[in-house]
Amino acid sequence: MSKQEQINTRLLALEILVEAEKKNIFVKEALQRFLFQKQFLSKQNRAFITRLVEGVTEYRVRLDYVVNLYSKTPISRCKPLIRCLLRMGVYQMLYMDSVPDGAACDECVKLAKKKGFQNLSGFVNGVLRKVSVNKECLPFPSEEEDLLSFLSVNYSMPFWIVEKMMEWYGRERTETILKACLETTDLTVRVNTDKISREELTAKLEEKGICVCQGNYVPEALHLDKIDYVKRIPGFKQGEFFVQDESSMLLYQIAGLEKMADSGEVLHILDLCAAPGGKTTQFAQQLGDRAVVEARDISEQKTELIEENRKRLGLSNIQVRVWDALEVDEEKKYWADVVIADLPCSGLGCISRKNDIKYHIEEHQLEELVNLQRRILTNGAEYVKPGGLLIYSTCTINPKENMENAKWFLKKFPFEAEDIRETIPDELRKSMVGENMLQLLQGEVKCDGFFVAKFRRISD
């Protein structure tokens, strides 16, 4: 029997899920590390493992609800491995038509025994058999009787997040956002036009069987489908593109630096929380020798990632430095023409790409993040020259982290709102909040949820 035929894909998927559960790390992180280590696997096996791992993660709220209908022990009290096995079994029954219920159940029972849980294999078998028998008539929450529970279970979103979204955006917009959070998203990349044209990269990728679509809002953006492993994509090692969502790419357009850059003086740009380097490298690439970008982040691990991407993309106008954004750098006061403040946030705008971020954020952390952002903005304001720009952005849809923080900043510091209406695509104008803020909501736009506000320091 060949090495490929001996592969137990369900066992490998289980190990990834259990690792993420026990270490409390993002599933995507565990999956990417696994795919890197197991490059000998066939594309079919890698696709099955990815589908199972990501599917179980994405639908976890709904799967847990179903398990709890038929288990005397709440799933939250089960051992991590048993918890992951039950989720895997139910996911295959509900969402993988190619897998017979009996096979899904039997394989989970075998894995329980294989992993030393012989005494719980009967429990696993009993729960999954009950789900199989009842799966066509599962008693889900009623929309009429309990709307919040219905939305939470139906769209597999933690109850407290649904409650918050309803408070922020109302029923119709909340459901639009929730639907979008479950939709499969293509991989989006930004073409490094210093090395290759958009047309040349498109042709190169299509030749390898990759489906390529043009971006919706940014000329350098491409959407890729049928991707097996990012680092295997032609052109990755050569630095011909950078993985980045279009929402984030919009920041350069909104900054509108071409006029400033053509003044003859080299622009000083400071990126406060730069890893992995998407905005840093985009600004550096677009401006070339007209600008110097200093990219900072809190740890060597993060700055090494920026440096790795800088080298891969072949950019020489970036300086990378370890610096805690909560600490004021006296030497950089009034140094920057532009400060990029893309700050730590709850990440609720990119759930469709990071499908377990919804389990890693807790309600009490929202207020903590608002305060963290304000502390960094306070320091960031110190670095902006008179007449210079501060651009504040997050990848969340929480108004307190976004619009309310932007309004707080204007009241607190000698800055004025900078009109961005002429810098964004016409189809995004509906997402404007006032003249200087853009709040993108997933489902309403063809990209992640994202927020940008632009401020100019008052010259006198």
Write the layout of secondary structure elements.
Layout: H1 9-23, H2 27-37, H3 43-58, H4 60-70, H5 80-95, H6 101-114, H7 121-134, H8 147-154, H9 159-181, E1 187-191, H10 198-207, E2 211-214, E3 221-225, E4 241-243, H11 246-255, H12 258-261, E5 267-271, H13 278-287, E6 291-297, H14 300-313, E7 318-322, E8 336-342, H15 357-360, H16 363-383, E9 384-394, H17 403-412, E10 415-417, E11 432-433, E12 437-440, E13 450-457
- Give the radius of gyration: 24 Å
What would you say the CATH architecture of the largest domain is?
A: 3-Layer(aba) Sandwich
Mean pLDDT: 95
Largest sheet: 9 strands, mixed
Q: What overall form do the CA principal axes indicate?
A: globular
CATH superfamily of the largest domain: Vaccinia Virus protein VP39
> Which stretches are poorly predicted, pLDDT < 50 over at least 5 residues?
1-5
Could you give the order of the helices and strands? HHHHHHHHHEHEEEHHEHEHEEHHEHEEEE
Strand content: 15-25%
Task: Report the total helices.
Answer: 17
**CATH topology of the largest domain, what is it called?**
Rossmann fold
Structure summary, number of beta strands: 13
Compute the separation of the termini in Å.
78 Å
Identify the CATH class of the largest domain.
Answer: Alpha Beta
- Helical fraction equals 40-55%
- Class by SSE composition: alpha/beta
How many domains? Answer: 4
Oligomer: single chain
